[in-house]
Amino acid sequence: MDHTPIVSVVMPVYNAAEYLGEAVDSILGQTFGDFEFIIINDGSTDGSGEILDRYQQSDDRVRVIHQENSGVAATLKRGLESARGKYVARMDSDDISLPNRLEKQVAFMESHPEVGVCGTACRLFGDSSGVTMPKTESEEIKSWLLFGPCMAHPTVIMRRDLIVKHNLYYNMEFKQAEDYELWIRFSQYCEMANIPEPLLLYRVRDKQATTEFRSEVCRWSGLVHKMAIGSLGIEPTDEELDLHLSFHSASFPKSREYVEQFEKWLRKLLEANNNNKVRDGKAFARVLFECWRCLFAGEVELGVWMWKRFTRSELFRAQANTRFAPTVSSALFFCRASVSSVLEKTRTGRSFKRFARAIANNGW
What we know:
- Helix content is 51%, strand content 16%.
- By secondary structure, it is α/β, with parallel strands linked by helices.
- Strands 1, 2, 3, 4, 5, 6, 7, 8 and 9 form a 9-stranded mixed sheet that branches.
- β6 (115-126) and β7 (130-131) form a beta hairpin.
- The longest helix is centred in the C-terminal third of the chain and has 21 residues, at 256-276.
C-alpha cells in the first residue's frame, strides 16, 4: 500500500515559468520531508508544464496534474480533492517557502488540535519589501474577517478531515477572493491562528498593483464583505457597504461627515454582535477600536475636534480601562506626536497640547 503522507502541499500554476523553479525547490528542500507535492498546471502556455514534468520524473513526492485553464478557485478545489495528507498546505508558484516552514506549521497543528487553519507572517520581496504582522489570536482573527482575509493565502496549512467533513472546498463562484470566502466558512467550525514568524517569502509584482487587477479584487472581495456583514444579522445598504469598503481600501475622505458616519457604522456593527453573539464580544470590540484608531492615526487636518471625537466615543471608552489600555495610550502618543509640530505655534496648537496632557494625566 502506498504511504499516506502527513502533508499534501497544493500549488496551482499558470504561466509561471520565470519563478517556478524557485518555488518548487523551496518545497522540495523542506526540513520536514513527509509530504506529497500536488502541482496543478492550469493550462500554461509558457513551458511551465514541461518544467513540472521534469520535477515529477526526478522526485516521487511530486504529483503533477495537467488540465485546461479553469481559473484559480477551480484549480485549488481540484488540489484539495486530490490531497491525501492529514494536513493540506498551500503554496504559490512565484513565492518561496523558508526551509523550516512545514516543520514549524506541522508542530504547531499537532500541539493545537483545536486549530483548523494556520497561516504565518511573511516577508515581502520583489517590487516591495517589509514583514507582515498578522493577528495571532483566534477570536481576533475571526473578528477581523469582517474587514479582510487576515491570513496570507500561500502560508496556510489546513486540516483535511475538517475540509471533508464540512465541505470546506474553494467556492468556484468566487474569483479573486476565493481564500477570503473560505476563511469565513472555516471560522464557523474551528479555531484559527497565525504564527508570527515569517516562514514564506511573498513576491510582490507590478501586476498586483494595476488598476484593472485591483478593481477585480475589490469587486469580488466586496461580495465577501457583504456576506461577512450579513453573518451579524445586518443587510447593509449600498451606502453602508461603500462606507465599509472605503475603510478596507484606505480610500476615505478626511472630513467630519465621514468620521461621524464611520463611527455610526462601527457602533451599528458593535450593537449587532452584542445582540447576536456571533463573535467574541471583547475581541470584536477591540477590533472595532483598532478601526476607529486607524481612522485618526497621523491625521492633522481636522484639528482638536477629531481628538475630542476620538476620546469621547464609546469605541474608545470601552478600551481605555481594559488590559489593552497600553494600546490606547500608544495610539494617543502617536497621534499627539504627529500633529504637535504642525500646531506648535497656534492657539489651536496650545489648546491641543493642554488637551493631550489632560488625556495623558488620566493614567491610560
